[in-house]
Amino acid sequence: MCGIALSIGPEADPATFRRMLAALAPRGEVTETRQENGLLAGVRRLRIVDRDRAVQPWVPPDERHLLCFNGEIFNHHDLRVELTRLGHDFRTAGDTEVVLAAFRQWGEEAVRRLRGEYAFVVVERDSGRAYLARDPLGVKPLYWSRGPACLHLASEVKALVGHGAPINEVPPGHHGWAGTDAVRLRPYVDLLSLGAGLPVVDDPDEAALLVRAALTDAMRVRLDTDLTVGVVLSGGLDSTLALLHARERHPDCVAVTVGAPGSPDVAYARRLAADLGVAHEVIELRPRDIRLADVREAIRISELTEYGDIINAVVSVPIFRRLAELGVKVVLTGDGSDELFGGYPMYHQVGPERSRRLFLHRIRNLCRTELQRVDRASMGHGVEARVPFLDLDVVELAMRLPLDLKLRGGQEKWIVRRAFADLLPDYVRRRPKNPMSYSSGLHERARLYKPLFARLHRSFGYDLLEPVRRDFDSVLTRCGNDLDRAIADGLARPDYTVLEHARDLVGAARWNAAPVVRRLVNPRRTRGGDEAPLPG
């Protein structure tokens, strides 16, 4: 994983380019650049695959192209074999060289052969044109802006705000050509039609076998590393599956959990890690430990635009900070499972067709919500987070599963629980779903600062892409889970009103005042007395 920055065109300015690359410094360990007339390209490289030889920007022997690449290609071994048979010679064992060889062999069709989490730019050095591509789900980011006779490209918004020009995102699953005069992108994967034409898998036994095979393979390819692997562990279903697979292939793996003392996440995660004999780092934060400075830093790192996502980022940042301190560079997370396998109540409050539309809407927007949080919070500390639940094969399979396999007997993600029933501890398999920051016990403390989020966001210049807006889930709930109404309402009233902020602040203040009141009423009660017992 890396942070990439390019300035292309006759007015490309070295000083401006250096500032762009400096803004991406936390994403990697080494700075590698190539600067020539009309083309300034650089990478902050996090050394994961072929750490010594896979330098960037990558230029082949004939020097016709230049590649800046952020991400991982999990099938690069297979592609290397095929490309070698087609006459390509390789100087490294990494995936970077394979990406460029694939592009040179198959052109724009190469992206359809890549299995991974990636964003990259290939520059034709004679013409100055740039080919841009981003992975189907948008796990890895890529943005662009234009100045006079110059095209700027970067992995994060913060690298582009200095230009003062509007900033644009390369959408997930899109690719195309860009120059100083125009950027023309089109989809190469249509998530709306993914799985279309394939039979629905409605037999529970068959579905369980397919889900297990797809998820196991998605975990396998993301655990193909000689580095120590970390797992972000909440003690819930998804992170538990990630830890079980990581432990099998990497006995030295380490789990990291964040939460308030006595929170459900900490309790479940402690029990699971002890049962598995896995090294476990617990970051215990009292709610009052979260201050305005922590919120401001989470906004600076994450660049997020919805209030709930920002609150989740406040909780996420300490996890990846600790992983970096431990020297862990590769991490698995359970993100995406709720969207795919029915982990949200809204899916079950409407009919199957409306549920599918809600499902697709969430999947298409993960790039600017949950996945953006994971990318920025992790790479902001030089840690590569991999998301096995969002492997394209897993997503396609999930689209073929009927809703009654995702929710059954009041239990969400039923088919995943069944698929891995023999591996999951019973107390995890029966644990109900809780949003990350609620079960950590830290959400309401961060919510105190919500009225300041938009101003802090603007102070970093991030509104050059888009401003902070109300949580779409809250709009959807108010609109009775009617997607069309919610989209229209969100456009009409993009942010919360002053009155809505005031009501929210009062609710958060009451929650935060409750522990103080309890201590005044019963001053002898110990902190341990507040801990909820772990079921089972």
Number of helical segments with 4 or more residues: 21
**Ends apart, CA distance between termini:** 40 Å
Sheet with most strands: 6 strands, antiparallel
Radius of gyration: 23 Å
Helical amount: 40-55%
How much strand?
Answer: 15-25%
Overall body shape: globular
Q: Tell me how many strands there are.
A: 18
Mean pLDDT: 92
Low-confidence stretches: 526-532
Strand order of the largest sheet: 2-3-1-8-7-9
Class from helix and strand fractions: alpha+beta
Description:
The protein is globular. Residues about 525-530 have low confidence and may be disordered. The chain has helices spanning about 15-25, 75-85, 95-105, 205-220, 235-250, 265-275, 290-300, 305-325, 335-340, 350-365, 370-380, 390-400, 405, 415-420, 425-430, 435-440, 445, 450-460, 470-480, 485-490, 500-520, and strands at about 1-10, 30-35, 40-45, 65-75, 115-125, 130-135, 145, 150-155, 170, 175-180, 185, 230, 255-260, 280-285, 330, 385, 405-410, 410. A 6-stranded antiparallel sheet has the order 2-3-1-8-7-9, covered by helices on one side. A 5-stranded antiparallel sheet has the order 4-5-6-10-11, with helices on one face. The chain has 21 helices and 18 strands. Helix content is about 40%, strand content about 15%. Helix 4 (about 205-220) packs antiparallel against helix 12 (about 390-400), helix 7 crosses helix 8 (about 305-325) and helix 8 (about 305-325) runs parallel beside helix 11. It is α+β, with helices and mostly antiparallel strands and about 525 residues long.
